[in-house]
Amino acid sequence: MCANVFGALKSLFGKPFDGGKRMDHGSQQQQQQHPAMIRLYEVQREVQSLGPQVCTFSGLKNEREYRRLERELTRLLLEVDQVDTEGRADLQGARKRAAQEVEGLLRYLEENATHPSRLAIEELSREAQGLVEQGVVEPQRAGGTAEISDELVDAVQELILRLTQVKTGGRVPLRKARYRALTRLCAVQDVIEGRTRQQTLPLSEDTHVAVQRINQVMVQVSGARSQLVALLMGLSGRDSCAHLSRVLTELLVELDALDVSGNAAVRNYRKQVVEEINGLLKHLDLEGEGDDTRRYDLAQNDSIRQIEAVRGRVGQLRGEVLRHCGVGDLFRPKPELQSLLTHLDQVDTARNPCIREARRRAVLEVQAVITFLDLREALICRQPGSNEPPQHRAVWMVLGSLSDLQAQVLCFNGKRADKSYILLEELLTKQLLALDAVDPQGDEMTKVARKQAVKFAQNILSYLDMKTDEWEY
Questions:
Q1: What angle do CA 62, 245, 352 make, to 5 degrees?
Q2: What is the rounded distance in angstroms from the CA atom of residue 62 to the CA atom of residue 10?
């Protein structure tokens, strides 16, 4: 859409306003020197300046930048309307086209600021703010220490997944808004998970003269962690990332100046504190990161290209596997599939949540083919004995049905509203119910087999759901 706006601007301003009529050089020069045409060209320059700002604005209608852009465009529209054309058709045509372009930018600005996806991004951001404020910021403000619970970590992860699934329709402002929300929430996730992973324990102050100051720095780092989370989520009105960065840098300088020679334990303690500070500093460059188009417009991203190349090859291998299964043969490209998993693991996500999600989904596509092959091979090689318990045989019968259903899921390319999707979902649910009805009667082998079969059926359902969620970069 933004490209269309710029294209229209070029078509309008890339040639003289001639009202759609051909004219000789003298008439054209006379027209361009007309006061009305001079004023329209002045408007042209202002519109060309505002166009890129409108096409990358990712905020809401209540923001100052939106009101500024709206005010400037409305002013230009009024000025175009006041241009005196003296009843001349050529000038009237030029004025009409100029007004259309300004109106187009106004419309594009409003559409993005009020788009359902933009509102969904804002709603998820506010939900994240509420979680973080209650779980991290408020305890710190009350003078206590925030206890990071597993529930908070899981809730943040769930919000990240929901944000990655917001549809942007390729609109740059929506992509930008989603990316900015994701980067901040992923940074918060990294901070709170880092806190639960590495609990640096203070040393006794009797250990060394420098320990007292290191302990004091540790207290300041704990406060800075909560302050950083508040900044990332827009919950700190007075502070800025630049100020916190200066504070943390000063702490690093002070730690570096401490004399801890001759004591390995204190040196290691100081090193741990320095690593914690550096872990916080790496998240303080986010204020302008969302302005880098390459970060949120991923069509030409090298990592995405690698992921797409893997997905293309997986699609070819999947087609070959299903074709061979259709004629009763078993094509076994597992070594190549494993190498594709290794390749995906080496893809650089550059801390970009969208690339991270794209890689995760590609991994699931590879794993779906591998698990299909594993089950097919197990079914072919299965040699049940005459004394096999009936309940164990019942589990294998369900697994055989699940294998056939997975083949259909692997080649499914429809939408959730399709009848085939609804049918597949219903059949998979029936297999889960069939497994639930199996009574192991105390047989441990049957218990394990049923548990694995349930997990397998649930994975197929999740994969089917992923294939139809219309996720985009």
A1: 65
A2: 30
